Fold this sequence. Notes:
Elements: E1 12-17, E2 25-29, E3 35-40, H1 45-60, H2 69-76
Parallel strand pairs: 1-3
Antiparallel strand pairs: 2-3
Amino acid sequence: MIFCKRVIKMDINTQLIDMDVLVSEQILLNEDDSYTIFINSRLSHERQLEAYAHAMQHIHEKDFEKENADEIEFEAHGIGDSV
């Protein structure tokens, strides 16, 4: 029996940069449909990994195709009904 997994190739660049302490990460959808994830270098290593996982969740959920930022964050954080 042969199992095939669907493999999706995404180009994702990750950068550690100094950011405001209230910002964990930011994601940029580039013109070539690749992504750049900016992770706050001021965070602990553990928090950087959490920020990266959060950013990847947004990418995998195709949140850049959605319109309502509040709903996106409510879904990403597992918060009940959105406003």
